[in-house]
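Tokens for PCDC1 protein. Go.
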Amino acid sequence: GQVVYSIAEETERGASVGNIAKDLGIDAATLSARKFRMITGSSKQYFNINASTGALSVNEPIDREQLCELKSACLLNYELVLENPLELYRMEFKVLDINDNSPSFPLSEYHINMPEFLSPGARFTLPNAQDLDEGTNSIQNYTLSSDEHFHLEMQTRGDGSKYPELVLKKALDREQQATHRLVLTAKDGGHPPKSGDVPVIVTVLDTNDNAPEFEHSVYRASILENSPSGTLVVQVHATDLDEGPNGEIRYSFSNTTSADLQRMFLIHPHTGEVTVNGVLAVQRPLLEMLIEARDNGAFGMSSTAKLLVEITDVNNHGPEITITSLSSPIPEDAVPGTVVALLSILDKDPGENGKVTCQIPDNLPFQLKPSLENYYSLVTSGLLDRELISGYNITVTATDLGSPPITTQKTLWVQISDVNDNPPVFSADTCDVFVEENNLLGAFLYQVSASDPDLGENGRVSYMLRNSTVAGSALASFLSVSLANGSIYAKRAFDFEQLRSFYFQVEAKDSGSPALSAAITVNVYISDQNDNAPAILYPISQNGSVAVEVVPRLADEDYLVTKVVADDEDNAQNAWLSYHLAQSSDSTLFRLAPHSGELRTTRSMRSTDFLKHRVVVVVRDHGDPPLSSTVTVGILLADTLPQALPDFDDSGGPPPLLNTTNIYLIVSLACVSCIFAAFLLFLAIVRL
């Protein structure tokens, strides 16, 4: 947006100009919070803004003539910058002229030498007054004090400018009056009008009655602004009809030409060549000078011509890039179109040489958008991802349209700040954990790990168990997980025979706001240990008694006596069972199949065989170490089932095999018997 104010020069300090908040539609209460500031290229701050009300007032009185010199329109340009969000407004102040300057003449008095023989109608150029005001406040007319010999007329040059001339109205007589004192008055059109006077002293001479005359009243020339010293601008030429010294002409700049221009240019007094003297340090495209041609007569006569010099611009200024505002860092979730920076790009050259094109590299998620005149906004054009690129070096290239063009570059560092846009990530969706049963309480089982590419709290991951049940009990009664590193520990001993496998989920959650999470499924497989001995299912001993099997008295060979059946709750090789005869009352009568547990006769029964037999069977698994169980089977040889079963605690068959205890008893008894016999023999010998 843009707003234009008009203000008269010399307005006193504190005077109200307007209300910028009201004029631009801005809430005045937000000015301070939005860090408003006024930007201007002027060296002085002429205006103030009240941060509370938005009132715009004069900070320092403006002197229009000092600020804008001879420009017809005097403008002050300000930019109002607001942040959060970033906005730019342009303010233009038109400084209105007041009639605060009186016309003035360059010299305190002017002298004119006039030959006495001049005829009425002779003309003499009078000096122009200067008035720094413009328009109607500038010089409007000249008057001359009353004199019978002279009157004043206004003349117009070829470019339309007017100047006063002193016209001889009545012939002079030096012998009667050698000097005439006149007063030239310049008046402006202000209200009230102001004026300035200068004495004009006319000395009546007796010689040289022709003044030099220029070929043109106005000379025009054009030079490049970077023309070196000594460059010819133009050559003026005037002629004088007089002869001798009265016809010799010397050229110079008129006293009304400013001292700056007289230092910038030189004029050769004899040839009339105007050349460059030094650097053309001017901002105005058109320079105006007055050249005077004066003869060398005893009473030198002169005339003036105007020289207009047009300064042609060359492309000698590169674009100037200024960072007015920069927002860095910016969050990675910034939407496309977010304003990052405000740039001011200015080229001091006029015309095409001052027009600028601006660009940044195409491979960046940013773009430049033109804002107000000479301003560009750097905005995001795509999505940002700090995890891929954490910052950008953005090179702004500004090139003017001159020939050859001049390029300027400026680099901005825009940092991307992190937001919590990445959840924790596990390396796999599931994992398998194998644990042996009968584990220790607090045993380490497994460690899950998730990564989060975000920074700080957004990337700090904590772990927890998701609520679930295992075998009807809460998961927390079986396991615990470390909040910091994801280590999983057992809170109880597992029993393969009761629970062979289960699964649960571990959740990884970051510390961002809002927090993001992910989960991994953990499958737990419990490995079997040989912790169960084989269980005898058949035959069954009741109350500690021996199981009895009845076999026909004359059974044939390979007769199936019984089959020992056992089971092992363990798994795999821990449950592989083998059957062995640990003890048998007659080892030649029975055999046991090691894999099936079938107890069979090895031969046909004989009438001489004992009726009762006792067999001890050992059932052993293949665990490491192996576990075993035993069962005692009593075998009764009978053709019919007796009404009462005999007692198999002491076998009715052949004597039991000697064991170590029995051998010790027999040896002890033999030793005692030998000693007793030896004692009896000793007594007998003594008696004899």
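The first strand starts at residue 2 and ends at 8.
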